[in-house]
Write a structure and sequence with these properties.
The complex is a heterotrimer of chains A (about 375), B (about 250) and C (about 375).
Chain A: H1 2-18, H2 20-40, E1 48-54, H3 59-70, E2 74-79, H4 83-92, E3 97-101, H5 105-110, E4 115-122, H6 126-155, E5 157-160, E6 163-166, E7 171-179, H7 186-217, H8 219-224, H9 230-260, H10 268-292, H11 296-312, H12 325-331, H13 335-349, H14 353-377
Parallel strand pairs in A: 1-2, 1-3
Antiparallel strand pairs in A: 3-4, 5-6
Chain B: E1 8-17, E2 20-30, E3 35-39, H1 46-53, E4 61-66, E5 69-70, H2 75-81, E6 82-85, H3 97-107, H4 112-126, H5 141-152, E7 159-163, H6 171-186, E8 190-195, H7 198-201, E9 206-211, E10 214-219, H8 221-227, H9 234-247
Parallel strand pairs in B: 3-8, 3-9, 6-7, 7-8
Antiparallel strand pairs in B: 1-2, 1-4, 4-5, 9-10
Helix pairs in contact in B: 3-4, 3-5, 4-5
Chain C: H1 3-19, H2 21-41, E1 49-55, H3 60-71, E2 75-79, H4 84-92, E3 98-102, H5 106-111, E4 115-123, H6 127-155, E5 165-172, H7 179-210, H8 212-217, H9 223-252, H10 261-286, H11 289-306, H12 319-325, H13 329-343, H14 347-376
Parallel strand pairs in C: 1-2, 1-3
Antiparallel strand pairs in C: 3-4
Helix pairs in contact in C: 1-9, 2-7, 2-9, 7-9, 7-10, 7-11, 7-13, 9-10, 10-11, 10-13, 10-14, 13-14
Classes of the chains: A alpha/beta (about 375), B alpha/beta (about 250), C alpha/beta (about 375).
Chain lengths: ~375, ~250, ~375
């Protein structure tokens, strides 16, 4: 049994590693993807191009402008003189938001009346819009607090023998303590997730084609007339790709640490162990698709068809907790979900087996089932 | 060892693909050590029959035994006892000659101590001793065929199925290939070979003519020719048999 | 260019597509699946944040604050009376994102007219969710604080004080901030890439692998006829996908289509043509399906997903990556899609993007045609 598995393993290694383009394929795409996506995948809103539409041109509007200019998030790039101009700026995408200050703004503030400021947000990306709105509100709130403070000082003074003193008033201050990712950098969250996705893509693709390609070339027929057992063939096809997948896992993890300085707080050994369990599922799924496909094109479409929803339902960029309950249940069948939890847990939270054992167990069970079913699905017959 | 008797026994074998009947009630026996030829135009059902005998396809009805094993129920035992060379060249193009041999040696479970000897034999037989390190895709057609044969006999199967082994190979190489088949038969191997070359039919001990899924003639080449009168060639026999079959309303 | 030969190639390709029903089903099902997932299931809208509260004080004042967390739809209290250990446990197991800790002298501090502190412990791993969650919690606490102050000020007879500046947020184009409104149009760019790059890159590679290309070479067919014949078949498939996506998006998910349908069709055709040529170019270069598939995935599908501004906004990427996005056609197409769907703008605004799509299509067509000629010579 081991003899036959070893033969298949040796053959797969020879075929993959001998071809220079295949060799390159194992290294370059994962590397480039990690780097580009690591930089690009980012939900932080840090640079907002802001338009300024000042119909007041008084002391107070200038003061508010100073506050926006002082904010690290906003850069005032355009001025709008009229509603039409403001609309055009947003339509063309020259600015993402516009602060519109109505005439009489400074006068109202001076006379203690409530003044109006409007923030126009480009809602085409709802996530960005929500965050921009929060930031703009926060800038104006700061100004409000200053103004309010001045007014309270005028009114809430008490006269004592020693002269006027400020009365104390109560308040509640929230105090933020952010764990695991204190700078709230989304890169720290996404880069470990990218590792999961790239490993899935690479291993799924290699194995999805491996059996069906032999069917197309005709060599599978030659293998089928030999006494080899389906499980031997499946294992022989799994092991080399598992090793290549592990190699890629180490490669991208190295890049994540070296290029993106993502903290790795937990155990590296646990990460590798979980990776090995995870590969059982992706390789098994790839082989399964390879056994049910008749052409390479079908196998590729099938692997894509598998990857797409598993990727989107992994919690990589869309939190599982936000999904409808039914869909949340479906995600329990998704191996990526568990590996995503593990990778993020190990990288960011530094937790270990005591926390992650359910995920590890799920991966082991799913991987075994998937791999077994692809062995069962593989028949040594042509019809 | 399975019981004595014929190497191949086929009884009323039928294979349907949907509406299409590829093999239509074929019955025949092949004795041990025989070179049995399967002659017929393309699409006559030769490849389908061979694939059923190798356990690659399940018969729709009827039965077949190879080396005493039922091809439907005991296909794994069948696979231990046969060598198979498919119509389409199907070795790994991107492995060397030697690597292909090593691979199949391992897959067939040839004992370690015998491997070097078997490989040397296969290389010698195929005349590929000087090409052992060549990439398979660079070999000429005739050599590829001999290598494929070499890979199919590494485990010394008692029965060999060759599906149009010489198609697309030049006449010289074809001749050499048949020398190999003879050498194999002399050592007691049963060879079941299909072809559409008439002159190759003459090399077989016995022949079956296949047409539209049926055997329309069966016998030694000399018997078949004698049935059609003096000086008849294999070609005449072939054409006459087909015409007769057509008249019978096939 | 011979019309009859073109037709023959086109007909053959169309037969391949129709006969291989599994691939065809997938080509049509993948877009629908993606639309349905994005339309129903996937959103970054943050609410019901799982929260553990540790109220060490238990006074009426602190309970009032807890009640406000309970009443808000943004929070879902998983544990009312936890402690630090509980909070750490829940956050480690990803059962909670937020911990709210109220000091035991909360009521005393507030009654003595001092400023009490409430600790917010936040799981920062998903920074986006974390900062939104923190924002909601802080806003809630500040509102409570403002009320306390106002009560005190009124009690001292100082009169009500209004907020000096009243901010009104107005969200344009997508006033309910629905993520599907921007994701569904962007998805069209991704879906067209799947058909174009993934399916097409395989077709010529397959002909090389199967040896049918040699057969074609022996006929008088010209490279451009082969190219356009193959292209036309997949073009129709891509446009069919586009129509499905459009119908589902507008009909089922009620994504607004504010601009011109005609312009949308034109822009999609331009983008699809370029993408198809790219797929064919790749397959002519790689000649094997495996490599063609890999190359097209890396060079077209993933950039369309990640570098197009579809989900992740380009202006927040590092400068170098921003430069890279300039050669990603999906970037321009996504801009056109958002412009037409959400903003309702026309050629006067989008002409630059359209021009780029045209130039891209032209360049890639020439590349593909040259590569075919080389391979066929």
């Amino acid at each position: 049994m081991w003899e036959r598995i070893l033969q298949i393993v040796r053959k797969e290694f020879r075929q993959t590693l001998r071809e220079p383009r295949l060799r390159t394929m194992l290294i370059m795409p994962p590397l480039i993807q990690t780097i580009i996506f690591g930089f690009a995948v980012n939900l932080d809103v840090e640079h907002v191009k802001l338009g300024w539409m000042d119909l007041d041109r008084g002391v107070e509007s200038v003061e508010l402008r100073r506050h926006f200019q002082g904010s690290p998030t906003f850069t005032i790039t355009h001025e709008a003189g009229s509603e039409a101009e403001a609309q055009a700026l947003l339509d063309r995408g020259d600015v993402q938001a516009i602060v519109r200050i109505a005439p009489g703004f400074s006068r109202d503030i001076g006379s203690g009346k409530q003044a109006q400021a409007q923030v126009l947000l480009d809602g085409t990306n709802s996530n960005t819009a929500a965050i921009m709105g929060n930031y703009a509100t926060a800038v104006i709130a700061t100004r409000n607090r200053e103004l309010l403070g001045e007014r309270q000082r005028e009114k809430l003074v008490d006269r004592t023998a020693a002269g006027p003193i400020l009365l104390k008033i109560p308040g509640v201050e929230p105090e933020r303590r952010v764990w695991f990712n204190p700078d709230l950098k989304s890169r720290n969250y996404f880069v470990p997730g990218i590792i999961v996705n790239i490993i899935t893509l690479v291993t799924l693709m290699l194995t999805a084609l491996s059996i069906v390609r032999e069917k197309e070339i005709g060599t599978m027929e030659q293998i089928m007339v030999t006494p080899i057992r389906p499980m031997e063939l499946i294992l022989g096809k799994t092991i080399p790709f598992a090793i290549m997948g592990m190699f890629d896992l180490l490669l991208i993890t190295g890049v994540a640490l070296a290029v993106f300085h993502v903290p790795l707080r937990g155990s590296f050994a646990l990460l590798v162990f979980a990776g090995a369990l995870f590969l059982l599922s992706t390789l098994g799924a790839g082989l399964f698709m390879s056994t049910i496909s008749e052409t390479q094109q079908q196998a590729m479409m099938a692997s894509f068809f598998f990857f797409q929803p598993t990727f989107m339902l992994s919690g990589f960029s869309f939190p599982i907790a936000n999904m409808p309950t039914l869909v949340q249940w479906v995600t329990y069948l998704n191996p990526l979900r568990y590996f995503m939890d593990i990778v993020r847990g190990v990288f960011l939270k530094g937790v270990g087996i005591e926390v992650l054992w359910p995920q590890l167990l799920a991966l082991a069970v799913m991987g075994t089932i998937i791999l077994l079913s692809s062995a069962l699905r593989f028949h040594k017959r042509l019809d | 060892m399975p019981p004595d008797g014929n190497a191949v026994e086929i009884r009323n074998l039928v294979k349907r693909f949907g509406e299409f009947v590829a093999v239509d009630h074929v019955t025949l026996d092949v004795g041990r050590g025989e070179i049995f030829g399967f002659l017929g135009p393309n699409g006559a059902g030769k490849s389908t029959t061979i694939r059923i005998l190798c356990g690659l396809l399940a018969p729709t009805s009827g039965s077949a035994q190879v080396h005493g094993y039922d091809v439907a129920a005991q296909s794994e035992q069948v696979k231990q006892s046969i060598g198979y060379m498919s119509q389409k060249f199907s070795l790994y193009d991107d492995l060397t000659v030697e690597e292909n041999l090593d691979f199949f040696s391992g897959i067939y479970g040839v004992p370690h101590e015998l491997r070097a000897e078997r490989k040397a034999f296969a290389l010698r037989m195929a005349g590929l001793e000087d090409e052992r390190a060549s990439m398979t895709r660079l070999l000429a057609g005739g050599w590829k065929q001999r290598l494929a044969l070499g890979c199919a006999i590494l485990h010394q199967p008692p029965i060999l199925f060759l599906d149009e082994p010489t198609s697309g190979v030049d006449p010289m190489a074809r001749r050499q290939f048949w020398d190999l088949i003879y050498a194999m038969a002399e050592q007691g191997t049963t060879v079941f070979v299909s072809t559409h070359y008439m002159e190759e039919a003459e090399y077989c001990h016995r022949l079956a003519l296949m047409y539209k899924g049926r055997t329309i003639a069966l016998g030694a080449p000399s018997e078949l020719k004698a049935e059609h009168g003096d000086g008849a060639t294999m070609n005449d026999v072939f054409i006459a048999s087909i015409e007769r079959a057509e008249e019978e309303g096939l | 260019m011979n019309w009859r030969r073109f037709r023959a190639i086109f007909h053959k390709e169309a037969l391949h597509i129709v006969r291989d029903w599994r691939s065809l089903m997938m080509a049509l099902a993948v877009p629908m699946l993606m639309l349905i997932l994005f339309g129903y299931a996937l959103t970054r809208y943050v609410d019901r944040i799982p929260t553990v509260i540790y109220d060490q004080d238990g006074s009426p004042q602190s309970r009032e604050l807890v009640e406000r967390f309970r009443g808000s739809r943004y929070f879902s209290i998983v544990e009312r009376q936890g402690d630090y250990r509980e909070i750490i446990q829940r956050i480690n197991h990803s059962k909670a994102i937020l911990g709210v800790v109220i000091d035991k002298d909360f009521a005393k501090t507030v009654s003595s007219n001092s400023v009490a502190r409430v600790q917010l412990l936040i799981d920062g791993s998903d920074s986006n969710t974390a900062s939104i969650a923190a924002g909601y919690a802080e806003a809630l606490i500040m509102a409570y604080s403002a009320e306390l102050r106002e009560q005190q000020i009124v009690r001292r007879g100082a009169g009500k004080m209004e907020t000096p500046i009243d901010v009104r947020l107005r969200v344009l184009y997508n006033n309910e901030l629905k993520s599907k409104n921007f994701i569904v149009p962007g998805l069209i760019a991704v879906i067209l890439m799947i058909i174009a790059a993934l399916l097409t890159s395989l077709t010529i590679a397959r002909e090389w692998e199967n040896g049918t290309m040699e057969q074609l070479l022996s006929t008088p067919v010209r490279p451009n006829e082969l190219l356009l014949g193959k292209l036309a078949a997949y073009f129709l498939l891509g446009m069919a996908d586009m129509a499905i996506a459009l119908a589902l998006g507008v009909g089922v998910f009620h994504v607004p289509l504010r601009g011109s349908l005609l312009l949308l069709t034109f822009a999609s055709a331009l983008y699809l043509f370029g993408a198809l040529c790219w797929g064919i170019f790749l397959s002519a270069v790689t000649r094997t399906q495996l490599l063609a598939y890999q190359a097209s995935l890396v060079s077209s599908f993933l950039p369309a997903f990640i570098l197009s501004g579809f989900i992740f906004s380009i202006s927040d990427m590092p400068l170098i990556i921003q430069q890279v996005t300039r050669i990603v056609p999906a970037r321009y197409f996504v801009a056109v899609l958002k412009g037409i769907f959400l903003k309702g703008v026309g050629v006067s605004v989008l002409w630059m993007d359209l021009l780029f799509l045209f130039v891209y299509a032209a360049i890639v067509f020439m590349l593909a045609s040259r590569k075919m000629r080389q391979k066929m010579a």
